[in-house]
């Protein structure tokens, strides 16, 4: 599976925990986020999956 997901990260969990939940739900091993949101902040987190992880650096501005 390859692609980019816009995930709403709620307050109280880390960006890493959000990506881990995506990995668990989709049953994949390769996924990462394009930037860290503070655990006390909520907002949209871009999560790159599979081959899309190779372009993550270009999505950070």
Descriptive account of the structure:
This protein has 61 residues and is an alpha+beta fold. The chain has one domain. 26% of the residues lie in helices and 28% in strands. The chain has 2 helices and 3 strands. The protein has helices spanning 15-26, 56-59, and strands at 3-9, 31-33, 43-49. It has a 3-stranded antiparallel beta sheet, with helices on one face.
DSSP helical segment count: 2
- Secondary-structure-derived class: alpha+beta
User: How much of the sequence is in beta strands?
Assistant: 25-35%
Give the end-to-end Cα distance, rounded to a whole number of Å. Answer: 25 Å
Topology:
Elements: E1 3-9, H1 15-26, E2 31-33, E3 43-49, H2 56-59
Antiparallel strand pairs: 1-3, 2-3
Q: Could you provide a short overview of the structure?
A:
The chain has 61 residues and is an alpha+beta fold.
Q: Which key terms come to mind for this protein?
A:
single chain, about 60 residues, alpha+beta, three-stranded antiparallel sheet, 3 strands, globular, isomerase, tRNA_psdUridine_synth_TruB
